[in-house]
Amino acid sequence: MKKKWYFSLILLTSLLSFSSCHNADTYYDYSLYYSYQNAGKGIEVYCWQDKESWQSGILPGTNRLKSVEEVEWLQVNLPCPLAKMREILDTYEEEMITVILVSNPPLPSELTHEIREDDHTYSFLMVALGLGQE
């Protein structure tokens, strides 16, 4: 009887751990985003809406516009919820940060770095990331 109870407990624990929903914060390793601190040319934070939630990703600043493929890689492989991105950005010190709103998948016309400060969505993103006035 004791062995059956022990086996049942182990089986139940295993099933619960495999079947539980993953939390995006624990599922993805965001160490790449933390590594861009002091990048020299700043960072670019790409934001997109994925179903009902907003996601984001970081690429280091360069002297060129990013390609659709680079931003798509972020969207597929390392999407980061805005709340978590805000935590990441809070660890940055005096970094030049550019926020870029893109579709999913991104369009080449969205990667021009044209800042739309009068846009309500852009303002929402800035506040959500801790970069704008609340």
Structure in words:
It is a single chain. The chain is α+β, with helices and mostly antiparallel strands and 134 residues long. Helix content is 40%, strand content 17%. The chain has helices at residues 2-19, 24-27, 31-34, 68-77, 82-90, 120-128, and strands at 43-50, 53-60, 80-81, 97-101. A hairpin with a 2-residue loop joins strand 1 (43-50) and strand 2.
Q: Figure out the total of helices.
A: 6
Question: How widely separated are the two ends?
Answer: 60 Å
Largest sheet: 4 strands, mixed
Share of helix among residues? 40-55%
Low-pLDDT stretches: 5-25
Spatially, the strands of the biggest sheet line up as 3-2-1-4
Write down the overall mean pLDDT: 82
State Rg.
Answer: 19 Å
Query: What's the shape?
Result: globular
- Counting DSSP E segments of at least 2 residues, the number of strands comes to 4
Q: Kindly name the structural category.
A: alpha+beta
- The proportion of residues in beta strands is 15-25%
* Order of secondary-structure elements: HHHEEHEHEH
- Give me the oligomer status: single chain
Supply database-style keywords.
4-stranded mixed β-sheet, globular, 134 residues, alpha+beta, 40% helix
